[in-house]
Design a protein that fits this description.
The complex is a heterodimer of chains A (517) and B (262).
Chain A: H1 2-26, H2 31-50, H3 52-60, H4 62-90, E1 94-96, H5 107-114, E2 120-125, H6 133-144, E3 148-153, H7 159-164, E4 172-177, E5 180-184, H8 189-200, E6 205-210, H9 227-235, E7 238-243, H10 245-248, E8 255-261, H11 269-280, E9 284-288, H12 297-302, E10 306-308, E11 312-314, E12 318-319, E13 323-324, E14 331-332, E15 334-335, E16 348-349, E17 356-358, E18 366-373, E19 379-381, H13 384-390, E20 400-401, E21 405-413, H14 425-428, E22 431-437, H15 453-464, H16 487-516
Helix pairs in contact in A: 1-2, 5-8
Chain B: H1 2-20, H2 22-55, H3 59-64, H4 67-101, H5 103-109, H6 114-135, H7 138-146, H8 153-180, H9 184-200, H10 210-219, H11 223-230, E1 232-234, H12 235-261
Helix pairs in contact in B: 1-6, 2-4, 4-8, 4-9, 6-8, 6-12, 8-9, 8-11, 8-12
The chains are: A alpha/beta (517), B mainly alpha (262).
């Protein structure tokens, strides 16, 4: 009885152990847990009851004391080791041995992190997060700055958190600072640092869209509307507001960029004067026109040397399944030498654009360049009557021949500011920036996601708003390397790596074994 | 100091015993055969991939491929698995043999302290580990000899450092299990199971909840190796491995001591 009760006691301990482990994992009192804990406890008690005397004496025995001692020492030692690990965790010491510096942040990123005044969180909505290069990259940020934390969230398993940040697909990184957020699909150091740069600035630059003349609707979600463009701007931490200029006679001084998007009715005289004043004092404006709209804008813009063509740019590209197109959707692949398009290599798609050129010579104080040109096979059809009534085009002598410029960017020197001592920011502005596109449709809800239209638009707005701190960082990779082997060399390597070494070892071992005999 | 000489004394004795037995050579040969086979196949496969991309007229991708990520990295991972298989076979005899031959009593009653005995035997195991790893250095050497351009040195160095720490941790577990029993097979099996458990302990990390998950993942031995294999020397991983080894050796000492009063 005694022996079996002892065994019963040990079995009870095993049951208890597994019951506890199971509870730790499932965190609920399932049948398994209850059976194990109850069964284990009762077996242990049962065995104790039968061996009470033996248990009592063994408790006092030296061996038990030594055993208990050992356990206590082990626990204490373990605790110390765990503490050491925790301390090491909070004071990372790393040495990056890669040639490309995969585990170090570039100087620009370090500077951005150093200048942070609020905490920044990155939420990676990826299905596979841990262990990816993005994980390593984000860890670089987190290790460098205590203000930066990140986590990976599987959007499929956590749809509520995805919805909270308006994340509708996987592979989106949300960067959050205070109550501002931005989403980026990119996983490069450049994208992340630029996003942090945008988000860390608590003040939002204001972009005002002129309204009340039938311009494109900011809230409009149908095809010609500008809802998507507005959301894209807000994602870059801009504040987008409508402007009813005819009511207030003055463009608000805190407007960083004024956008005039294809008005269908002519502007009032006081509005034009207000805009002119705004630009002359250093304001920045983006004008988007369309053939047949924006009455009066061409005369207005001529003041700064903008030559608006009264035409439609036609590019009759033979499309694969649609036959020769009417050609009013020219693709632009060549860009001007300007900061906006400095590294821009991608194509953009326009819809019904006028030509946009610069007068020669430009007025005093104005410098500028063409931003975008259509292909060499295009031309600017000036017979608008025929075009609009019969949808026909024909290349003729008076038409501008391609490549046709359809966008220009200008800087205008600011006239001497008013003599006021107390002037602060306004007096410091040296130049006004002006960009004019011959087409307003390329960023509407239908066209903004075609090709790289959105990028061109955002680059333009960033330049106008003077957001020039955005930087470019080269992505870091492992250096390429390879082995060029002739068949003979391949054989050599095979011998060396697979045959010779093991053979030598075996022979050596045999020799030793033989010597021992 | 007496302790130091004792340690070297014990280490030397065990090393000699180790290298005289056939087990050492079987293990070394097996390790080198497997590693060599992996290495060669990885290299051939890599070359095939490069010529394929060049044939597809994508030389830009071909230049991005590199020996570090496509040959050394998978090789190092394969070597961790082979280490996991081989280490128990080396450490199983460290204490079990003594118990079997009853020479452990001689050892315990000698003037050498238990600490020195444990550290000495562990040192012998570490030297054996070094020999194993050193033999495999021929593979990166081949890559440097024939490589045009040659692979990056940094990640390879870091990878081997990580492999050493990982192997050292394996051996610490092995020496502990060896001290538990006189049966070498049992010692090897317990060691093997424990090592595998520590390999996969991080798997339920995602579903087990935030804190438990993080703890489990931190305990996973292989997770601390990955950064080394990519070229990063991180003090935190070194601390983990060192504390892991210290704890295992500590337990070994307690286990030996317990024979005194058991």
């Amino acid at each position: 009885m005694k022996k079996s009760s002892q065994i019963a006691g040990l079995c009870g301990l095993v049951l208890l152990l597994f019951g506890i482990v199971e509870f730790l994992f499932s965190r609920e009192f399932s049948l398994f847990t209850i059976v194990h804990l109850a069964g284990g406890a009762s077996l242990v008690l049962f065995s104790l009851a039968f061996n009470l005397g033996g248990v009592w004496s063994s408790l006092g025995a030296r061996s038990t004391r030594y055993g208990a001692n050992a356990v206590i020492y082990s626990v204490i030692f373990l605790g110390i080791l765990v503490l050491i690990n925790i301390v090491a965790n909070t004071h990372p010491v790393r040495k990056d041995l890669t040639e490309g510096g995969l585990f170090s942040l570039s100087d620009q990123s370090q500077k951005v992190l150093d200048n942070l005044e609020e905490d920044v969180q990155a939420l990676g909505f990826f299905q596979a997060g841990k262990g990816t290069p993005l994980d390593d990259l984000l860890k670089n940020y987190a290790n460098y700055s205590p203000r930066f934390t990140y986590e990976f969230i599987d959007p499929v398993k956590n749809p509520e958190r995805a919805n909270k940040h308006e994340v509708t697909t996987t592979d989106i990184l949300v960067i959050k600072c205070g109550d501002r957020e931005t989403k980026i699909p990119g996983v490069s150091e450049e994208d992340i640092t630029n996003a942090i740069l945008k988000i860390a600035n608590p003040s939002k630059k204001k972009i005002r869209f002129l309204t009340s003349h039938g311009e494109r609707d900011l809230a409009g979600e149908e095809e010609p509307g500008y809802y998507v463009a507005k959301k894209a701007l807000e994602n870059e931490n801009y504040e987008v507001l409508p402007l009813e200029l005819y009511m207030i006679d003055e463009v608000p001084g805190d407007t960083d960029v004024l956008v005039i998007a294809s008005p269908e009715k002519p502007l009032e005289k006081n509005e034009l004067e207000a805009i002119e004043r705004y630009i002359d004092q250093g304001g920045n404006a983006l004008v988007l026109m369309d053939p047949g709209t924006s009455p009066g804008m061409d005369e207005f813009l001529a003041k700064w040397g903008v030559k608006v063509g009264n035409n439609v740019v036609v590019d009759q590209v033979f499309r694969l399944f649609y036959g020769p197109s009417l050609g009013v959707d020219p693709v632009v692949a060549s860009y001007g030498d300007h900061e906006i398009t400095k590294d821009f290599q991608d194509q953009t798609l326009f819809h019904m654009s006028q030509s946009m050129e610069l007068a020669e010579p430009l007025p005093a104080g104005v410098t500028g360049t063409s931003l975008a040109k259509t292909s060499a096979s295009s031309w600017a059809e000036s017979d608008l009557e025929r075009f609009f009534s019969k949808s026909e085009v024909a290349r003729s002598e008076e038409d501008l021949s391609g490549p046709v410029s359809i966008a220009v960017a200008l800087t205008v020197d600011v006239k001497a500011p008013a003599e006021e001592e107390g002037d602060d920011v306004a007096a410091e502005k040296k130049e006004a920036r002006l960009v004019v596109f011959g087409d307003a449709a390329f960023i509407d809800n239908e066209y903004i996601h075609k090709m790289y239209n959105a990028d061109l638009f955002l680059n333009t707005v960033n330049w106008l708003a003077e957001e020039e701190e955005l930087i470019s960082i080269r992505p870091k990779t492992t250096r390429g390397s390879r082995v060029l082997m002739t068949p003979q060399e391949t054989r050599d390597i095979f011998y060396l790596s697979v045959l010779i070494l093991p053979e030598a070892l075996l022979l050596f071992g045999l020799a030793i074994w033989w010597r021992r005999r | 100091m007496k302790a130091l000489t004792d340690i070297f004394h014990v280490a030397g004795k065990d090393l000699r015993a180790l290298f005289v037995s056939p087990v050492a050579y079987v293990v070394l040969t097996g390790y080198v055969v497997l590693s060599g086979w992996f290495f060669f196949n990885l290299l051939v496969q890599f070359n095939r991939m490069i010529s394929m991309y060049e044939m597809m007229r994508r030389p830009d991708i071909a230049t991005m491929l590199n020996l570090n990520e496509m040959v050394m990295l998978p090789l190092l991972y394969n070597m961790t698995i082979v280490l996991l298989l081989m280490v128990p076979l080396i450490t199983m005899r460290l204490f079990s043999e003594e118990k079997k031959l009853k020479t452990d009593e001689l050892l315990l009653t000698s003037p050498i302290s238990i600490n020195s005995i444990v550290v000495g035997k562990y040192l012998a195991a570490l030297v054996f580990l070094d020999v194993m790893l050193a033999l495999t250095l021929i593979y990166p050497a081949i890559l440097f000899q024939y490589g045009q351009p040659s692979p990056e040195m940094g990640p390879i160095v870091a990878g081997y450092v990580g492999l050493f720490f990982l192997g050292a941790a394996f051996m610490a577990v092995g020496i502990f299990t060896s001290s538990l029993t006189e049966n070498q097979i049992v010692a090897a099996v317990i060691c093997f199971v424990t090592l595998l458990l520590f390999f996969v302990i991080g798997w339920p990390a995602e579903t087990a909840g935030p804190t438990v998950g993080k703890v489990l993942q931190y305990l996973s031995l292989i997770d601390h190796f990955t950064d080394f294999s990519k070229g990063l020397l991180d003090g935190q991983h070194v601390v983990y491995f060192v504390t892991f080894i210290l704890f295992a050796l500590f337990l070994t000492k307690r286990s030996i001591e317990s024979t005194r009063w058991r």
